[in-house]
């Protein structure tokens, strides 16, 4: 579907996310011919730059994040010509006049405000836009994570932003939902008959969802220190992936049909009790070590770090979903920085065969397992048992592998490219609704409080490993292992 003309306003336009993701994503779509000729990208910042100076900043900071395969100087110059820079103080409505001046008033032009700012500014910016008459009923607002830091602040954001924009105008972004493999999971589950009958407690033993990163906090210490892995990754990305795995078939892929089903999953998560708070969560923080052969410092020794910080850089949780489909099936979620590998995957492990008709014992049969890989590449792997060639009847595990890049030669789209296109088209399916956001915070809230009150120190783990030993023990108690450790 072609895009109609638009003015995209990026608050935090000179910031890290804009330079690393948003500008490169918009450039890639421009290069692919998706952007209308007169569409504008208006970057907001406090620096007193003119358009030419901002383009220089783009050359210095955004250009390096563009895939060389799609870059061409002529199309980059053309793209930069549609970028405008507006200097204002986002907290002060009196400074918004220059934004008024560049925005076009034609209501056929889609107007999007993308708030890539700290969440403490969301309410203020929305009210300022409203006060200046810039937030019209045709405009949309995109809220970047973190969407609050607990249930109360998330509710506050929903309330305040809701005073200016209707729910149908609010796009709460979780870039994991824009990843190709996540959408493929929907295709796999609801475009085939093969898995759905097995996608339940009778046949599935457990589900593991891992997002492991090799990088440390880098230059984001200011943000990360107030966040930690639970707020940064688990409350949003991991829980969203869990929803896509566990939800019932939606009536359609329309926004509310999908979001209704995701919400039911979040509301069915078994609430924590004092026992499960103590037993089912592991909190870790990286110490010095080696990643890809290079020595890396401990979290507490990173630039600008608090040497006594108790912020977690790793978290693992055992979750359960109290529904007929999933009762008793553990969902193990984990994420961490400075881990052994850069990898994001969902592992669905099926139950063991009930009985072996072969001379091999039951225990020599590896249960079937479906791996949905999100990163570093996207693909599917199905582990089966097959007969080894030759005389006799020996079975051994084999892998059916589907590499999406190989199968579909089409170039991959970054998650932000897809999500920005969806915003510009007004398609809300891949964005969180207010009730979903609150349900996710509600589930993690007791963990935050528990850590706060118990002063629960994170367990140390060496950089370049799979996290604290307690994470292996968490799953080991149920007689299982993380896939990489099996
Ligand atoms: C972001 C987190 O939301 O996701 C970062 O704030 C993290 O800490 C990033 O590094 C991971 O995203 P991706 O797409 O690189 O896996």
From TrEMBL:
Binding site for NADP(+): 46, 145
Catalytic activity, reaction form: D-glucose 6-phosphate + NADP(+) = 6-phospho-D-glucono-1,5-lactone + NADPH + H(+)
InterPro entries reported in the protein's UniProt record: G6P_DH (IPR001282), G6P_DH_AS (IPR019796), G6P_DH_C (IPR022675), G6P_DH_NAD-bd (IPR022674), NAD(P)-bd_dom_sf (IPR036291)
Alphabetical UniProt keywords: Carbohydrate metabolism, Glucose metabolism, NADP, Oxidoreductase
Active-site residues annotated for this sequence: 237
GO CC terms of this entry: cytosol
Pathways involved: Carbohydrate degradation; pentose phosphate pathway; D-ribulose 5-phosphate from D-glucose 6-phosphate (oxidative stage): step 1/3
Superkingdom of origin: Bacteria
Segments passing through the bilayer: none
GO BP annotations, alphabetical order: glucose metabolic process; pentose-phosphate shunt, oxidative branch
Stretches assigned to the Glucose-6-phosphate dehydrogenase NAD-binding domain: 9-184
UniProt binding sites for substrate: 175, 179, 213, 232, 337
GO MF: glucose-6-phosphate dehydrogenase activity; NADP binding
EC number: 1.1.1.49
Pfam family, one: G6PD_N
Annotated Glucose-6-phosphate dehydrogenase C-terminal domain residues: 186-483
EC category name: oxidoreductase
HAMAP family referenced in this protein's UniProt entry, alphabetically: G6PD (MF_00966)
Family: Belongs to the glucose-6-phosphate dehydrogenase family.
Protein name: Glucose-6-phosphate 1-dehydrogenase
Native source species: Herminiimonas arsenicoxydans
Phylogenetic placement of the source organism: Bacteria, Pseudomonadati, Pseudomonadota, Betaproteobacteria, Burkholderiales
